[in-house]
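Reply to dn_fold:

You asked what the input looked like. This is it:
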Amino acid sequence: MKPIRLIIALLMLLLPLAARTLWYYQGTYQRTQPVPTPDYMSYTIPQPKISTPLPAPAAMIAGKPVVLFDLNHDNYYFISDVAPLTHAIEQLGGRIEVNESSKTLEDQLKYASSLAVIVPTSEFSTAEILTIRRFVDRGGHLLVITDPTLNIGVGIAANPPVTSVEVANFLLESYDISFSDDYVYNLISNEGNFRHVIFSQFAKDPLTQNLSKVVFFSTHSIKTGQPALIKGDANSLSSLTDAGGGLVTATTAQQDKVLAIGNMTFLTSPYDQVADNQQLILNISKFLISQPQSLDLAEFPHLLSRPVTLLVPSTSDAISQNLLAALSVAQSGFQELDLAATLSPKPVDGNDLVVIATMPVNKELQPYIDSFKLEFSREPAPTPTPAALPTTDQGLATPEASGGGVPSVILINYVNVPGFGKFDTNGLGLVLFTPGKDRNTLIFLAGTASDLDTLAGLVSTGSLQSCVVQGQVAVCKLSGGSGKGGF
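and this is what came back:
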């Protein structure tokens, strides 16, 4: 009986379930049409509107301008602190470099477009000051930044310690710019703190383009006879005197090649996102990557910024082994400078040009040196003085007495270089440079074919110490030669 009862209980439990299943069952689902879904690929997330556009792609700016950041003077920051600035420079096609103890400041400034000196707290030497002044004089840009919150440093065995204001003022002395050892405050126009001052008065300048207001989070005021770039309103006061109104916090000098700013914090994250600070950073980045306006041989070998075309003779002329060796040496030298160098019988658009030849040049190359007014001549060697002739018991020897016959005339090649003088070309080398907006041209002229590779090797050595340099012309003593002409 018990098994029957158990079976009846199970049937009563399962029958309702079976009945519901049979009543509602409509068969398995068969999808006849695709289910419509959103077009996720074309869906874009709305972005908040920002006041500062992204920097232009690097491809829009030719070359690789170098921005050199000073870190050799106990600077009170790390390069990562100013990442908003360095990233903007790189997006605009620039290259970031810091000064190294293995290289001199003079060597690095030869190829740099600008030098950024941020909160230095140890003094620059007199030699460094002069090097920076020469760099600015030939078109380089200089950025100097101090900050009241990053002011005191260890200095050079100084007691009391040297401040960034003192160091920066020594560097900027010749440009009529000096930072005050204060901070600017404003009780009315500020960003939540009386030291976080809002500035909205700007001079018309590329550095202030598209600015409506910027916020400096504690800034020094600046004393200058130069036009103010950024200044405060009537309520902006100095902590030294609780007076002011119209205090200058950023200025330029030396025909806009020197830029001084009293605050660094706006260059750091997240303060770069406040107001138009990012636009100001973008403007400063463009200022820093601007190429020097005037190049001369003082920057050798860092005179070329584009790919290099090594000019070879036209197809009607054979390339000598000496010239081929010189082209190879030059190509290797430019590769060490990260410049691609290729051979071509004619200039290539967008490339810088290098010419290697012997003196005097042929008609094909003459147009490249016309502007230098070189004069080539072939003249008899100077006649020896009578004292130099062999003598006999009867006195001075005649040509016949010393062997007979008429002595042969020796001809010597000369070049007259304006501003230098007249030289025997044997063992002589000339380096000529012609800067241009679309192309820079560097010319190596040797007196003999055997000296071509020695002259081209100057690219690798990176120095013209064996040469007398004046502007865009260098006269070099390579080997041999009579040395006549007063070299």
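The CA atoms of residues 81 and 268 lie 6 Å apart.
Hope that clears it up.
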